[in-house]
Amino acid sequence: MKNVTRKLLLVFISIIIIIAIFYLGDKKMVNMFSAKSVGDKYAEITGIVHWINSEPIKISQQKNKVILIDFWTYSCINCIRTLPYLKSWDEKYRDKGLLIIGVHSPEFSFEKEEKNVEKAVEKFGIKYPVAMDNDHATWDAYGNNYWPRKYLIDKNGIIRYDHIGEGGYEETETKIQELLAELGKKVDMKLTKENLTVFRPLTPELYAGYAFARVTLGNEEGFTPNTVNSYNKPDKLQGNLIYLYGKWLNNQDNMEHADNNEAGILLSFTAASVNLVAGSDKNVEVNVKVNGKYLDKNNAGSDVKFDKDRSYFVVNEHRLYNVYNGDYGNFELDINSKNKFRFYAFTFGS
User: Please, what are the domains in the chain?
Assistant: First the structure.
């Protein structure tokens, strides 16, 4: 009898622990179980701290509209690559009843600043409404876990389409046309041409902050949260890991160059393009080399400049910088500067 009681007690404790984790610990798990999907009624847009290109919008007040909710954030390369399609749909179908709402749900702290998001919206030429979801209130209302993610809501407020990530543009636009036709609109427009992506093995997204679950620091010195650490150049680089040299302050969501001596980042990657999410409060020239050589016009990213044979990019705001754009393959990247800047993540393209 005692054994039975003990087992029941253990089961009860286990249930309490699982409930505690579910409600208090793992936000992603909570979202997974509460995620909106096709056939569900929409969730209202809520908790918005600032609207761009629009006065505050409530879905419940939109009559005879097809609504596209796009969860995005401005330094995410996957989100950036979807914007030409969203802008095209906005231009083609706005007058026919399509309302696109970009729900900007930040990944990094600098993406919560109004001036940064407003500047990005202007830079990308976005004309549709953008809602700054700084506390992820709308994100959580939809149970979302992904950038980007698109929901299509019909005239009755029912989610009719749900797409995670890039791609599926012709499928999405076909569904837009179908839902607009249900409004009685004539929408026999030609679909926006989709640029087919070649899928090849790539280095995954790499994060710098110690608080991220996907931290990928290769140095033996490891992380020292909220303190400055001195890192040594390794003798050999392991693929798909970030290596540092010089002094770096270990922040929650970034690494910050900590003094006026040279410090740098080393990375062995597999890709055809490399993007760095970085920031600074002033102009900082950051040198960039691949396989020990400065870049040239054949492999320089769109943000790279040249001073004679030297290749560099200027970090002067918090955003994504394209630093390499060349042949696909395995390469070693060296980014360094004597001036202070911070970096958040690397993303890669094929």
Answer: 30-181 (3.40.30.10), 206-349 (2.60.120.260)
